[in-house]
């Protein structure tokens, strides 16, 4: 993994040892990810979508892999929407526009 190492106000980024071999990287991290827990990551359990949001909190809504199938998707209220996967089937401009129009309707 790349690590930032501060040095006189600058950050050095080291190259991951597997960066030139994606197959080896996938195998290594896929096998080891269950044992790897970064110290700054805190696991949380999702709460039901209809739970009232406490004052001062931010509600994240996470979706992924909609693959141009956003018609009829019921989206819970949230402050921040994270779409973390494929939103088109083929990456066609018409699919991107359709997704953008759908996303714009969620405001």
TrEMBL record:
InterPro entries: Metallo-depent_PP-like (IPR029052), UPF0046_metallophosphoest (IPR051693). SUPFAM superfamilies: Metallo-dependent phosphatases (SSF56300). It comes from the Eukaryota. This is Calcineurin-like phosphoesterase domain-containing protein. It comes from Micrurus corallinus.
